Amino acid sequence: MGSGKRSDYLPEDERGASFAQIPTSFGHELRACLRCRLVKTYDQFRESGCENCPFLDMEKEHDNVVNCTTPNFNGIISVMDPARSWAARWLRIGKFIPGCYTLAVSEELPEEYQNICADNNVLYVPPKRT
Residue ranges of the Spt4/RpoE2 zinc finger domain (predicted)? Predict the structure, then answer.
């Protein structure tokens, strides 16, 4: 995986976790990562960041939680085996770690964080405009 090519995921040995935290509540405090669409509570992102996007440093810079996540998303899917799930592949989350993901976000990751993705050779795909 050290080919230097852009990828839409991080290798498992660079992720630090084999699965994402499951949201502790399913109320208004849920947020979705604008890059990978992982869903957790605000406090979970603040405490441990995004397991798919550690380079966004959400647990170190709490402003990044607000800037890199959104409470505005549609639907949730729980994925236990992303590589074997046709739904995960269809949603383009098949190479992320197991966890809860949103079906869609409508906001884009701010440009400065898109640049951080590019600096880390991680693909960012903005949401489709409908």
Answer: 30-106
The answer to whether residue 18 is domain-embedded is no
Note down the domain range covering 97. 28-116
Its pTM stands at: 0.82
Which residues partner with 39 through β-bridges?
A: 32
Integer Cα distance of 78 and 26 in angstroms: 13
Q: Is the predicted pLDDT of residue 64 greater than 60, yes or no?
A: yes
What confidence tier does 17 reach under pLDDT thresholds 50, 70, 90?
low
Domain assignment of residue 2, yes or no: no
Total Cβ atoms within 10 A of residue 111: 8
Token pair 């992320």 is found at: 96
Instruction: Identify whether the C-beta of residue 75 lies closer than 8 Å to the C-beta of residue 91.
Output: no
Evaluate whether residue 20 is within a structural domain.
Answer: no
8 A C-beta contact, residue 50 and residue 36: yes
Residue 2 in this model has a pLDDT that exceeds 60: no
pLDDT for residue 54 is more than 60: yes
